[in-house]
Amino acid sequence: MTLDGYIASRDGGVEWLDKYRNNTEDYGYTALYESIDTVLMGGNTYRAILGFGCEWPYPDKTSYVISHREQQGTNDCISIISDNAISFIKQLKAGTGKDIWLVGGGQLTAQLLEERLIDEMQICVFPILLGTGIRLFSENSSAYEWIADKQQSFLSGAILLTYRKP
Amino acid sequence: MTLDGYIASRDGGVEWLDKYRNNTEDYGYTALYESIDTVLMGGNTYRAILGFGCEWPYPDKTSYVISHREQQGTNDCISIISDNAISFIKQLKAGTGKDIWLVGGGQLTAQLLEERLIDEMQICVFPILLGTGIRLFSENSSAYEWIADKQQSFLSGAILLTYRKP
Asked: What is the ipTM, given to two decimal places?
């Protein structure tokens, strides 16, 4: 997120991140990606990724999209979940696999925070003010404390802050 | 600020900070306080401090309050500035004294960010989600990049992030 808490501009664009992309720093992405076997996201995030027009970026992971707008079903490696999302995610977490990555977005994050279903947050804070846009933490999300874990600084000025659920 | 970017609850309360107060950590406050000879704040912050009912907390500093609601004038060590605030602050910055601390609040911060008059930001991020309240960076504040400077972690899980103006 930006210093002022945004993950995207109002229209969902992430052009602000372009200047931080380079070949030497991945801001912890590879380590995160290797630690998971499942990705989870809401419908807006799903449609944003489809809108990029590229190949599905998580072909080697099991992908779940929580959405009422898409038709329930499974297509290639992507499953659409439209009913009983919370109990589905509880079951998923009870499985014996690797970790699950919540790719986004704000609404699903707020819901999972409310249900205390997020175990760890890795927040990479970039040294930029965006002024407006879509926030990582939406207004009226759940209020509670976290335990700060490790921190990692990058040459670009970004810092990766990791927090665990108490 | 909290992880979700708040500095106070909706009514201006800072009770969320209570659990982080202790006798061994001051989160950089003493170092900051010694580096300045002047404090600057908006009217809401001024009235909030008066509302605490304690002695003026900056008796050994020159205090300026930017406000249209208070009567212009000087009372003890506090001067109320109601006109031409930006040019007043530019003059203040051009002086030869120590640094100036912008105590708050959101409106004055947004205005000074817009005018590129803030040289350094020291943001102490506490490991807590507040869910709602008054934000450090108000909606539609200025969009620009900063240079990340030093970082300092505290046992409580707070981290002090310092940024300089490019």
From this structure: 0.89
